[in-house]
């Protein structure tokens, strides 16, 4: 069991959730406010996507990332900023021209995915460690692209959050570590319950945890109704916790949540298990993060 737990809050994500929950943050002001509120509720890390304010859809616009990060930093709220760097990988099959994506396809090179990270220098950014099926599209992330992006992140002095949706993703991440592309100690995020990837259950989490390299820090999350069961399970198996509106919209059945409410509930669960929630400063020390302005 982990007795010193880091809580991450993914405050908005890029999924099609705005129509299902009017409280999902969309504008830079709303997203930054959600990150600040999550931090005050007990989250040490805020994981940040941005959305197009005109339509609520996920976007990779560096200007929007810049505005969110500036707002959080200007608030002087102590929170570790974790920017997504996994945008631009959505390939929608085209039956008429299979070699080209159908409308809605959104592909970026590793350099394009990394541009806002290099500009804003967060303490953490995500590094998706493979491709996978997701509902009606494929998230495309071939090995050469992952290597290029890992090097860009390392050169920027940012800690990669190694997002793993399958056992094969862990295998590739370990290879990157062996090659020196990931600095010690690595930080893994086990992503469970996403269609059609690893399931959100105890056996899957345990199997993925057992595949991690010695000395790695790790967290895990479940989506939807499995968010809190997987949060508790992660603590019991030695990991950290992620809860937020990117992964789940409900505080309980039929009750829409805010990010702060989800964090507060996770904190209660962690403390009821006999563990302690770490502050942002303690999280920085544990993960060996480089402080940013």
Keywords:
globular; four-stranded antiparallel beta sheet; eight-stranded parallel beta barrel; TIM Barrel; 9 helices; alpha/beta; 293 residues; 18 strands
Task: Give an overview of the whole structure.
- Strands 2-3-6-9-12-13-14-15 form an 8-stranded parallel beta barrel, surrounded by 7 helices.
- 36% of the residues lie in helices and 21% in strands.
- By secondary structure, the protein is of the alpha/beta class.
- It has one domain (4-287): Aldolase class I (TIM Barrel).
- Helix 1 (28-41) packs across helix 2.
Outline of the structure:
It is built from nine helices and 18 strands. It has 293 residues and is an alpha/beta fold. It has a single domain (4-287), classed as Aldolase class I (TIM Barrel).
């Amino acid at each position: 069991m982990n007795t010193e737990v880091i809580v991450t809050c993914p405050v908005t994500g890029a999924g099609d959730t705005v129509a299902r929950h009017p409280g999902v943050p969309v504008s830079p002001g709303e997203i930054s406010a959600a990150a600040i509120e999550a931090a005050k509720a007990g989250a040490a890390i805020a994981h940040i996507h941005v959305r197009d304010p005109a339509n609520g859809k996920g976007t990779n616009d560096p200007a929007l990332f810049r505005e969110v990060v500036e707002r959080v930093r200007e608030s002087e709220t102590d929170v570790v900023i974790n920017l997504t760097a996994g945008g631009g990988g959505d390939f929608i099959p085209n039956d008429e021209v299979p070699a080209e994506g159908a409308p809605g396809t959104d592909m970026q090179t590793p350099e394009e995915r990394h541009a806002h990270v290099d500009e804003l220098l967060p303490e953490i950014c995500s590094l998706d460690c493979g491709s996978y099926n997701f509902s009606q599209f494929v998230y495309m992330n071939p090995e050469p692209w992952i290597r290029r992006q890992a090097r860009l992140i390392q050169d920027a002095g940012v800690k990669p959050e190694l997002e793993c949706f399958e056992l094969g993703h862990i295998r590739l991440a370990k290879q990157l570590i062996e090659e020196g592309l990931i600095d010690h100690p690595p930080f893994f995020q086990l992503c469970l319950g996403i269609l059609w990837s690893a399931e959100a259950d105890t056996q899957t989490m345990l199997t993925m945890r057992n595949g991690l390299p010695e000395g790695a820090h790790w967290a895990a999350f479940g989506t939807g109704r499995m968010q809190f069961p997987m949060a508790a399970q992660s603590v019991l198996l030695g990991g950290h916790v992620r809860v937020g509106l990117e992964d789940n919209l409900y505080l309980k059945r039929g009750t829409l949540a805010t990010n702060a409410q989800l964090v507060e509930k996770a904190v209660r669960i962690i403390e009821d298990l006999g563990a302690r929630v770490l502050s942002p400063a303690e999280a920085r020390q544990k993960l060996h993060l480089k402080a940013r302005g």
